[in-house]
Design a protein that fits this description.
Shape: elongated
Distance between the termini: 37 Å
Strand content: 5-15%
Strand order of the largest sheet: 1-2-3-4-15-14-13-5-6-7-12
Radius of gyration: 43 Å
Number of strands: 15
Mean pLDDT: 78
């Protein structure tokens, strides 16, 4: 169904029927056919008694000519229309139109009834030269100069590069006049827009407006769909040469730990070593082969790893990095926006992953596109490998295991950081052991005291992995078997620790004693469980599920899941010689040890206990693990978490990522950043509709980003929604700049203009309170004056008072341009077709524009005696 507004406006009716030619039919141009159709309509209306107006579209469709008829009891109304390209000079004013109207109704009464007149003039403002550019001009002196919007690392641009408001339409209306009150002819006119009692404004927005944030997101989303590998983008030769950079960096950065370094270690730094190694590599590389400028690349890396610029010793750098990570974590806990990254499965807003997403988006849009992204990613992975090999914590990551609430890439970075932490702990423990051995060699007589000191040192710091005490220098070697034989020379004591020496004690446990002796029950030093990322957990679940539900599969699955339990049992046996399974259960799972008071033979109340029913089930995994567990402290056990292996797996995973895959991994962070930017900008403008849409967008993004396989069609629609919100905010900012309030106007004026601007954004047309004399009206008047003077090259008066030379003939430059459109409505009630007929309403609607002249009349006649 097609809804036409023209008959409603032109003829003042709400319900009507239109008959128009079909899509493939020719227009009704012949006058005879038009008359035939109108006659047919008249006959059908008279025969059916239908009182609904009926129209037929005649002439060419672009002319929008609708003629018709309406019949009622004793009344017939003819709807007639005239459309011309140009306005005839004799009808270019009110007096000429009144002559047409009076001649058409043909009333012979003397005097004629007065004609009611309603006039509406529309003025269009297109020149905004007196207002600032929507974006800050580019600063060509900076490193990132020449970019519109002041883009910096860590920030997303916002707003449009062109004026979002293309036109402002001012409609000045005189809703009720009579023909004798106003004069409007070819010589003089009383119709001054400033004197109009009613003003209304509507704005026309720019079409296909390009906003910076939307462009950044769109280009980043396109990057997600790319399939090229880094080798395809950079070429095999460049990729191979960059692959050698790992060994070059290792050899260069090894100078940090060489004891015979010619330069004191306090003068060495991460940044200097990285710079020298990369400078050596790039000597063999042609300057055109690097997609990303070296200065920009170094600036990005320093932004991502700011700790690399600190000129301090390696120990201080490590300590400061860890301290900065903990400080950042404490600050984030206080932030009110922490829940957003959890909802979107993104990353904290100050994390390395979040900053990397912003940098990749900036590089992709402004500094080379796909090749630059591939180049930056290669350098980034090399930096991570360098930090792994030299025990430098990765800046911008929380300590601890991977946070499964964050995106997968953030979990990978956290896993690598865990590996570095474990490696550092192992190296520090090895240094402590070496120092203790040196003291034993220097002071033999104090060997016993030194051994006790070393033992106490080992048993401090719960949660540290005691596998770091291995004397082996081989990274992949887990535990020396001869160590266990050295300290446990009796083969029969491997599983039975009743006569062994206690090792790996942490502290007594709740004043409990062993069941078979009076020795206190000690909490052992245990290994930390192996951290895992979500893809590792999923892989492990698939492996366990493939074992099936058979007895053998169930048993094997239980053994695979009990590695940590077995390690804890071995540590418990080493810390508590002579213990039994019940002692371990009392510490590890107290609910599985049931205690009750019984009365012995002497009548005394005695507290006894036993294992729970599930622990007594035949073939229980705990019993089997206890019998299998050796007497081995945590420091001699096989490592549950092989940090070297896991770190190499993470680095390999990162190095194999294609730019498109990387963009998909970082897409949650980019949408997180975009939502944050929109919330920040909306809070400055306070637009209720945008605030509501942002809440809905956050909920929608949560549903779109949590599935592993993204629905890219829905994501594209979601990005378009963000672009629409950016456009609305940009329009609001533009309107607020134009309708700015002076400091002297006060808070009430500010509130009034804010409501006015908000209405302009949400409503098609807004009434100006006070018309030309109101606050908004004076601002609109000033805008038109400035535009007129700029168009006629007259000096712009910046201080235009409302009462100073704004009216009168003394003005050389008119305040308003000629009206772009004039609408005049003439109405009266006269008897037709004879003087003794019933008085009926007559109406003529006139539209006068630069390239159109249209008259639409509704003329009623009395049909009682005709």
């Amino acid at each position: 169904m097609i809804f036409l507004l023209e008959p409603t406006v032109w003829y003042g009716i709400r319900e009507f029927v239109v008959i128009s030619p079909g899509t493939n039919c020719e227009a009704i141009i012949s006058e005879s056919k038009c008359s035939l159709l109108l006659s047919s309509i008249s006959i059908s209306l008279a025969s059916s008694g239908c009182q609904v107006p009926m129209f037929v579209q005649i002439q060419q469709k672009w002319r929008r000519i609708y003629a018709g008829e309406c019949q009622g009891p004793g009344v017939r109304t003819d709807f007639e229309i005239v459309q011309l390209r140009k306005v005839p000079s004799q009808y270019n004013h009110l007096s000429g139109l009144l002559d047409i109207f009076k001649s058409k109704i043909g009333c012979n009464l003397i005097p004629l009834p007065p004609v009611d007149v309603a006039i509406r003039f529309t003025y269009i403002l297109q020149d905004w030269q007196q207002h600032s550019w929507p974006q800050q001009p580019p600063d060509f002196d900076t490193l990132l100069g020449g970019e519109v919007g002041g883009v910096e690392f860590g920030n997303l641009p916002f707003g449009a590069c062109e004026e979002p408001i293309s036109e402002l339409h001012l409609a000045t209306t005189w809703p009720q006049l009579t023909e004798g009150i106003v004069v409007d002819n070819d010589v003089y006119s009383d119709l001054d827009p400033l004197q109009a009692p009613h003003w209304s404004v509507r704005v026309r927005t720019a079409e296909n407006l390009h906003c910076l944030l939307g462009d950044f997101l769109t280009e980043f989303f396109k990057l997600c769909c790319r399939k090229e590998s880094i080798e395809d983008i950079l070429g095999r030769g460049l990729a191979e040469e960059d692959g050698k950079e790992t060994s070059d960096l290792s050899s260069a950065l090894s100078k940090l730990t060489e004891p015979a370094a010619p330069v004191p270690i306090t003068k060495l730094s991460v940044s200097s070593m990285v710079h020298s190694a990369r400078k050596h590599i790039r000597r063999r590389r042609h300057i055109d082969e690097s997609p990303l400028n070296n200065d920009i690349l170094n600036s990005i890396l320093l932004y991502l790893f700011p700790d690399a610029a600190v000129e301090k010793s390696s120990d201080n750098i490590k300590d400061n990095t860890a301290q900065s990570n903990s400080n950042r974590a404490s600050e984030q806990e206080k932030s009110s926006d922490d829940n957003l990254f959890l909802q979107l499965k993104s990353a904290p807003s100050d994390s390395l992953t979040y900053r990397l997403a912003l940098c990749l988006c900036l590089v992709n849009y402004s500094y080379g596109g796909l090749p630059a992204v591939a180049h930056l990613w290669q350098e980034f992975v090399l930096e991570l490998r360098y930090r792994w090999e030299n025990n430098y914590l990765i800046y911008g990551l929380d300590s601890g295991p991977p946070d499964l609430r964050c995106c997968l890439l953030h979990q990978k970075f956290q896993m690598l950081n865990c590996c570095i932490e474990r490696k550092r702990a192992r190296d520090e423990a090895r240094k402590v052991l070496e120092r203790s051995k040196e003291k034993e060699n220097k002071v033999p007589e104090s060997s016993v005291a030194t051994t006790n000191t070393s033992s106490s040192t080992r048993e401090v710091s719960p949660g540290k992995s005691w596998d770091s005490w291995s004397d082996s220098e081989e990274e992949f070697f887990e535990c020396l078997s001869d160590q266990g034989e050295t300290e446990s020379p009796h083969p029969e004591g491997v599983k039975d620790n009743s006569k062994g020496k206690a090792e790996g004690r942490l502290h007594p446990y709740n004043n409990l004693t062993l069941l078979n002796s009076a020795e206190p029950l000690y909490v052992p030093v245990t290994q930390e469980p192996a951290p895992m990322t979500e893809d590792q957990l999923e892989e492990q679940s698939e492996v366990l599920a493939k074992l099936g539900t058979s007895a053998e599969g169930t048993h094997l699955r239980a053994r695979m899941q009990s590695a940590c339990l077995l390690s804890d049992m071995e540590s418990f046996k080493a810390a508590n010689p002579g213990c039994v399974l019940e002692d371990f259960v009392r510490w590890y799972s107290p609910r599985d040890y049931i205690e009750e008071e019984v009365v012995d033979k002497k009548g005394n109340a005695v507290l006894t206990g036993e294992l729970s029913a599930r622990m007594k089930i035949p073939g229980n995994m705990w019993v089997e693990a206890w019998e299998t567990a050796r007497v081995t402290p945590a420091r001699r056990q096989r490592r549950l978490f092989d940090d070297t292996k896991e770190a190499e797996k993470v680095l390999h995973y990162l190095a194999m990522q294609k730019p498109g895959d990387l963009a998909r991994l970082l897409l949650p962070c980019m949408l997180h950043a975009a939502l944050q930017k929109l919330k920040q900008e909306e809070s400055l403008e306070n637009i209720p509709s945008v605030k509501k849409k942002l809440q809905q967008a956050t909920t929608q993004a949560t549903k779109l980003l949590h599935p592993i396989n993204y629905d890219y069609n829905k994501l594209e629609d979601f990005i378009n929604q963000l672009v629409v919100m950016e456009t609305v905010i940009t329009r609001a900012r533009s309107l607020k700049a134009k309708f700015a309030v002076n400091d002297d106007d006060g808070a009430e004026a500010t509130d009034e203009l804010e409501k006015f601007v908000s209405s302009l954004l949400e409503e098609p047309e807004v009434v100006v309170i006070g018309a030309g004399q109101g606050l908004a009206g004076r601002i609109i008047h000033r805008l038109f004056i400035n535009a007129q003077r700029a168009a006629l090259l007259a000096p712009v008066d910046e201080d235009l008072g409302s009462d100073r030379n704004l009216t009168g003939a003394s003005r050389k430059v008119p305040d308003f341009p000629p009206p772009a459109g004039r609408e005049i409505l003439l109405r009266t009630c006269v008897p037709r077709p004879a003087p003794y007929s019933k008085a009926l309403p007559q109406r003529l609607f006139c539209v006068l524009m630069r390239d159109e002249f249209r008259l639409a009349g509704a003329f009623s006649s009395d049909t009682s005696f005709f």
